[in-house]
Design brief:
Layout (H helix, E strand, L loop, with lengths): L2 H8 L33 H26 L6 H29 L1 H16 L5 H35 L6
Helix pairs in contact: 2-3, 2-4, 3-4
């Protein structure tokens, strides 16, 4: 008997194609590589933004390490190896960790996909609303600062009058 007949006799549907998450023809689960993207078609905007932001931090970190190692004064051969080598290694390793976290790690990938879905649901304020709210905040900040300045001047005069402040 073939596998298709076994499926028909057991009542299981046979579509002729392997079930999701299975390798074609084997029935075994698909194996993803360590750095293979997890659900690459989903959460693309969030992943790209995160990669750019943290990528800039990784590059800055590599530059910082390079700046710290520029003062190394050892053997010329070692200096030429250490000064650029360690910052490059640092940047490549952190870049690999960043790639793995953002694109290959399942939990982080699911979080980014969910984040992008939630961001699409947000009701963003219009430019006019933001400008109006900003004007209100600035106005009240100036009013409160003026009020506190006036109260401070009144208290200074009271304390000078009773002799607590000299001046």
């Amino acid at each position: 008997m073939t596998a298709e007949r076994d499926d028909q006799q057991s009542g299981a549907p046979s579509s002729g194609s392997p079930s999701p998450g299975r390798s074609p023809g084997t029935g075994a689960p698909k194996s993803r590589g360590l750095l293979a993207p997890y659900k690459p078609e989903q959460g693309r905007g969030t992943r790209i933004g995160t990669t750019i932001g943290f990528g800039l931090l990784v590059l800055w970190g590599g530059y910082f390490v390079w700046e710290q190692l520029r003062v190394y004064e050892g053997d010329e051969g070692w200096r030429l190896l250490i000064t650029p080598g360690i910052p490059i290694l640092f940047t490549v390793l952190l870049g690999g960790v960043l790639w793995w976290l953002v694109f290959a790690h399942r939990t982080t990938g699911d979080f980014m996909i969910a984040t992008e879905g939630e961001m699409k649901k947000v009701n963003w304020s219009t430019r006019r609303e933001v400008i109006g709210s900003t004007k209100v905040v600035i106005l009240f900040t100036v009013l409160i600062a003026t009020y506190l300045f006036a109260v401070d001047v009144v208290f200074q005069n009271i304390f000078r009058w009773i002799g607590v402040l000299k001046g």
